[in-house]
Amino acid sequence: MTQPLDTLLDLLETQGWAMSDDIIPPELTHRLRTEGMQRWQQGEFHAARIGRQQQEGRHPEIRGDTICWLDHDNRQPASSEFLAWTDELRTLLNRHFYLGLRHLEMHYARYDSGMGYARHMDQHRGMPYRMITILLYLNPDWQPGDGGELRLFEADDPEREFHRLEPLAGRLLLFRSDLIPHEVLPCTQPRWSLTGWFRTDDPALLPT
Ligand SMILES: O=C(O)CCC(=O)C(=O)O
Ligand SMILES: [Fe+2]
After folding, report:
1. Atom of ligand 1 at shortest distance to CA of 111?
2. Is the ipTM above a cut-off of 0.90?
3. What residue stretches are annotated with the Fe2OG dioxygenase domain (predicted)?
């Protein structure tokens, strides 16, 4: 295991979240952003939904992003490269934490100006399959005042923010999907990211 990944997993274990600004090569971040923007221009994004599966629907005042799911056997070079890296990470997470993670679901997300995502947990009640959240931010020119910060809240006191971070290009974040309430503040510039969840269920058994 490389040293930076080792450190990242140790932090995830001790504090429930971990961040790195240099583990992903800047040129890969750049290509991922370009690929995401191209897919957006081609109309491949759709409004995100909240809650379990489809029944709850769209609530842009709660969750304002549009998303584009990554297909594991897609032919997009940058996201394929990133997914291959996340697969190695999944193996390491399993070795380190015995989590039995079986796959990663991941999408591009684009928040338009004025949009955010109200405080929530990623693991839905009664659906314990999402274990670890992964985020990679894709905004090279982010300035203070552009908003869109991610707020992290205490697990046992969800009113208490313990950390706030800007969605800077190349910033990778991991956190426990069952533990950390979080919120995306409204942004004043379009905000790009990749968001994913390492899961314990088998994609072949999921409803399509
Ligand atoms: O983009 C972020 O900073 C967080 C997004 C998020 O919380 C989610 O998609 O569940
Ligand atoms: Fe979330």
Report:
1. 1
2. yes
3. 102-200
